[in-house]
Amino acid sequence: MRMWSCFSVFLLLLFYTAAATPPSQQHRFSQSGTRIANNNNRYLTKEELWFSQTLDHYSPYDHRKFQQRYYEFLDFFRIPDGPVFLVICGEGSCDGIRNDYVSVLAKKFGAAVVSLEHRYYGKSSPFKSLATENLRYLSSKQALFDLAVFRQNYQESLNARLIQTKTDNPWFVFGVSYPGALSAWFRLKFPHLTCGSLASSAVVLAVYDFIEFDQQIGESAGVECKAALQETTQLIEQKLATDGKALKASFNAADLEIDGDFFYFLADAAVIAFQYGNPDILCKPLVKAKKDGDDLVDAYAKFIKDFFLGTDGSSTQSYNQENLKNTAITENSADRLWWFQVCTEVAYFQVAPSNDSIRSHKVDTRYHLDLCKNVFGKGIYPDVDATNIYYGGTKIAGSKIVFTNGSQDPWRRASKQISSPNMPSYTITCHNCGHGTDLRGCPQSPFNIEGNDKNCTSPDAVHKVRQKIIDHMDLWLSQCQDMSRSCI
């Protein structure tokens, strides 16, 4: 009877979904994974769904709503009591649920997977213009409330489809980088709404002058590569003083008229190699050029054009303050939106250390503050103390959170580093492990959407941290499992 009861619920769910959902939003339940195949293994699903979200969660008078995009994937869902995995989208367009290690976990635990696009990004903009006055509702605090309201409404919708009442499936939240911080903060602020959190490469500490970022690049680079990078920066500074126009053109960056923008662009190109676990693509040719007596500036320009602007797909427009001023909603709007969050909440100003820096000293605190003022107007600056007081920084007091970090990732200095009994944190300490390695695999550039850990120099290290994740998830999900359900 129990097996038949479960199967009956499945049929009812299938029937209810197909009957109650508009044709453009109907969901196909398939154990064969046909939707994955249709997306060439890069996404579990790209089928857009929409949720009517509150604009200002903190106002008792403002009842405006906006349409927020989300996705759901139910192929692995163990009906009716399987967990729900909430994958948090961050500072960019959320085009679907990616097929990374979360899909492995979803299959293992029989979980439904849902993902909510961050307000303002992608197709979830509350306004038709991104003028500074319209960005007042763009913050991590509002985003966390979005997740909470969505989680509650989705659970109610799930209960309706399952024809059950007053039931909560076990929820678990996931995020990488800024979404990793949101994942930890969500568990901190709404512990009753989730059984636990995976905070991968989670930048939970707002940092005003983030000199440790550059210092980590130096450590990850090693002695030879670091020396080559420092010499390259010095040579570029010298050439810029004599013929800046020709120099910028040699990097395909002639549009970056502000020198600070140009140097930030150059520094970020090096960051990408280490952040995403692929240092050899930068260090090998640069060290070789130095040993052979070749022009280091030419070697670095080749790396930027071939890899950073080529393979990686970055654009100089992301660093151009004139582009960041654009208030129209375009495919590049994420740059302006993220800088607004940087300039108001978290800073992460990646400034050059006073000594032994890799990036140019033109990328200093004044450069960042001038950018905030130039792009968004007077009075815009980040109150990092308020952010850290509100969330706790690296002293975050949330329980049942797994923090994971890559050894080469420069962002790890803004993440929790020390484990504690009620807040377990783990650091992936293998060479060639970067940002979000536990979910994405490595190296991540070129990006491997399935998270192939065989590309890591030390796959065993990734296996180890993934097993720790599974162990904690298994424990925490079982602890909050509703044992009163009759259908297991």
From TrEMBL:
Q: Note the InterPro entries from the entry.
A: AB_hydrolase_fold (IPR029058), Peptidase_S28 (IPR008758)
Q: GO BP, one example?
A: proteolysis
* Top-level taxon of the source organism: Eukaryota
Q: Which GO terms describe its cellular component?
A: vacuole
Q: Does the keyword Magnesium apply?
A: no
Gene Ontology molecular functions: dipeptidyl-peptidase activity; serine-type exopeptidase activity
Keyword Phosphoprotein recorded = no
| Endpoints of the signal sequence | 1-20
Question: Which Gene3D superfamilies does the record match to this protein?
Answer: alpha/beta hydrolase
Q: Which UniProt keywords apply?
A: Glycoprotein, Hydrolase, Protease, Signal
Q: Which family does it belong to?
A: Belongs to the peptidase S28 family.
Would you tell me the protein name for this molecule? Serine protease EDA2
